[in-house]
Amino acid sequence: MKALPEAPDRERGQLLAALGSLNQILLGKDREIRLALCCLLARGHLLIEDIPGVGKTTLAHALSRVLGLSYQRIQFTSDLLPADVIGISVYDRASGRFMFHRGPVFAQLVMADEVNRATPKAQSALLEAMEERQVTVDGESYALPEPFFIVATQNPSFQVGTFPLPESQIDRFLMRIELGYPGAAHERQLLRGRDRRDLLADLPAVMDPASIPALQRRVVEIHASDALLDYIQAIARASRDGSQHQAGLSPRAVISLLRAAQAWAFLHGHAGVLPDDLQAVQPAVVGHRLRPRDAADARGPNEIAAALLKSVPIP
């Protein structure tokens, strides 16, 4: 398939430069970095689930540096309050009225670190922000900046002090990825190389944040054929048949699958979405949204997504 005509060479070059810079920080994680960029291009939010110390925070910080985005990190803990996330109204004696003081969620890239260590009440502070891209305090709504991208990290549920994310919030994350341990060769590079924090401090921006909304609009314009849409709907129907999963994919999940596939096609210079593009993003989009009907089923999200994909033939 011919290269994508809509994306100017300059913007394509910026995306590839961003990818190259990120690969210098997070070694051996090219696929995960591509998925993270696609999540942003699809106007979604990213959930990274893994054990501590594998580079989750580093990836979020590197994305903000390379893309030139304003960055705020929120450490989620059991005593975190919603006001600590979205902000609070404080009475101003001079003006005689309440003034809203914006919280850390008012940034272009928000790192919600260890989001499942906070209580459900604190977790819910992100719901409106993720869906509506605004927050409402005392009956007044405040728009969040554009682009707006939440990267949340989550510790495995077997670790002490975690609260499971509700399904309503899980469904608002367009993608979920894992980073995993580095390979032996890349781990040796980490041991011999500079500290990642020092590299982050020297990492230059290669994109203008103002260009990202335009790229996001181009993603939506990537052609998806009727046959490709048939494929997506077949995957959705297979997830909803009731034999394998507690609940099937929601309409929002189906749209997310299309947008992620369009973003993957855009990033790789395709004029239209190929089945390969859809298959590349399907585990990250689908896995965290499905729960096995059998409580004894110990498969992980990626295995569940792979089994679903295998059960649906390409039209």
Q: Identify the CATH class of the largest domain.
A: Alpha Beta
Count of distinct structural domains? 2
Name of the CATH superfamily of the largest domain: P-loop containing nucleotide triphosphate hydrolases
Overall mean pLDDT stands at: 89
- The SSE string, one letter per element, is HHEHEHEEEHHEEEHEHHHHHHH
Overall spatial form: globular
* Strands in their spatial order, largest beta sheet: 2-5-8-1-9
- Proportion of residues in extended strands: 5-15%
**Class inferred from helices and paired strands:** alpha/beta
Number of strands: 9
- Report the C-alpha radius of gyration, rounded: 20 Å
CATH architecture of the largest domain: 3-Layer(aba) Sandwich
Largest sheet: 5 strands, parallel
Question: How far is the first residue's CA from the last residue's CA?
Answer: 18 Å
Structure description:
It is a single chain. With 315 residues, the protein is an alpha/beta fold. It folds into two domains: 1-78 and 105-209, 3-Layer(aba) Sandwich (Rossmann fold), CATH 3.40.50.300; 222-315, Magnesium chelatase subunit I, C-Terminal domain (Helicase, Ruva Protein, domain 3, Orthogonal Bundle), CATH 1.10.8.80. It is 44% helix and 14% strand. It contains 14 helices and nine strands. The protein has helices at 9-25, 30-41, 56-67, 82-86, 120-123, 127-132, 167-170, 184-192, 196-201, 212-221, 226-239, 251-267, 275-286, 301-310, and strands at 46-49, 71-75, 87-92, 97-102, 109-113, 134-137, 140-143, 149-154, 175-177. The chain has a five-stranded parallel β-sheet. The protein has a two-stranded antiparallel sheet with strand order 3-4. Strand 6 (134-137) and strand 7 form a beta hairpin. Helix 1 (9-25) runs antiparallel to helix 3. The protein is globular and about 65 Å long.
